[in-house]
Amino acid sequence: MADPVRVRRLTDHEGQRLQQIVRRGTGSAVRLRRAMVVLASAGGNTVPAIARLVRGDEDAIRGVIHRFNETGLASLDPQWAGGRPRLISPEDEAFLVATATTRPEALEQPFTRWSLRKLAAYLARNPRRVVQVGRERLRQFLHKHEISFQRTKTWKESNDPDRDAKLARIEQVTSKFPDRVFAFDEFGPLTIRPHLGASWTRKGHPDRLPANYHKLHGVRQFHGCYSVGDDTLWGVVRRQKSAANTLAALTSIRTASPDGAPIYIILDNLSAHRGQTIRTWAARNKVELCFTPTYSSWANTTEAHFGPLRTFAIAGSNHPVLARRLHDYLRWRNANARHPDVLAAQRRERARVRSEKGIRWGNQPLMPAA
């Protein structure tokens, strides 16, 4: 008669480790079950008794004991089989991702966006490379490569023949003469509706703004001037964009630098900025107007400073007191120009503007998906 199957004598370390696994009862269920079998066998229990304890098959119990006798504690960890062979190769996965990020129109499909169903159907019958994949597995592949379903955004590519020259000039003056560079732009319209924002309040009790939709003050524009060298921002609220208001703003910039040395003002191509009256005034007062390229107002230095203006002054305000809030913020901002919150808001605004335009400063527009 064969000897009964029993685990070999345990070492102190093995006994303590098995007892720890069984008492904690956490982690892999397979590991816990095998530890219980080994510990029970070490305590003198027979294989049939252990099978009743763990409600398992006697042959499986004997297999666990034999493996422990051969390899020790390493036998407790499950050695999962490889599973079903992978049907989608890395090349298929790369083709799947490239197809998902390509507009359907470019692949001669009669729609403008992919759904999971349409994308899976196209991959299964396309003439280039057939990839059979289910919708759930397809979703997992897209999630793995950080591809999500997002709203499209629009941007205009500059058709200005002097685009590169204008950008180069702006970069030159801001790097060589920062103390004499200013930027001017309008921010608006500051509409009649309240501007929603955020604030710290008790849960379930949001701060509320009066919904005043009467045009008591009309639609207004903030005319902002920014000094690159001094890192200061000032401006005034006007009822409209006009050549007269632009000239008044440029005059205030010239006044801010009374030494008579040439200054450089960066501004966009709005018609109110390019009139003959303004050009004549600029030539007479040693002012070089550095125009941004067409559809490239993002190159204006003052754009990044309108983000904090929106976040800290306009959002959470209402129209009747907006002008006063703007000037209060400008005084605080100029006294705290390097405040971490201001710098963070400027970074967010730069990222927002550049991502919408699909452009990086001084480089070509980002190429659309092939």
Overview of the molecule:
By secondary structure, the chain is of the alpha/beta class. 44% of the residues lie in helices and 9% in strands. It contains 13 helices and five strands. A five-stranded mixed sheet has the order 3-2-1-4-5, with helices on both faces. It is elongated, with a radius of gyration of 35 Å. 21% of the residues are buried. Mean pLDDT is 82; it is low at 360-370.
Topology:
Layout: H1 12-24, H2 29-42, H3 47-54, H4 58-71, H5 90-100, H6 116-125, H7 135-144, H8 163-176, E1 181-190, E2 220-227, E3 232-238, H9 243-256, E4 263-267, H10 276-284, E5 287-291, H11 303-314, H12 322-335, H13 340-357
Parallel strand pairs: 1-4, 4-5
Antiparallel strand pairs: 1-2, 2-3
**Distance N to C terminus:** 75 Å
Briefly note the structural class of the backbone: alpha/beta
Strand content: 5-15%
Record the strand order, biggest sheet.
Answer: 3-2-1-4-5
Q: Count the helices. How many?
A: 13
Oligomerization status of the protein chains? single chain
* SS elements, strand count: 5
Mean pLDDT: 82
What general form does the structure show? elongated
Biggest beta sheet summary: 5 strands, mixed
Regions with pLDDT < 50 over 5+ consecutive residues? 360-370
Rg on CA atoms, Å: 35 Å
- Residues in helices, as a percent range: 40-55%
- What's the helix-strand series? HHHHHHHHEEEHEHEHHH
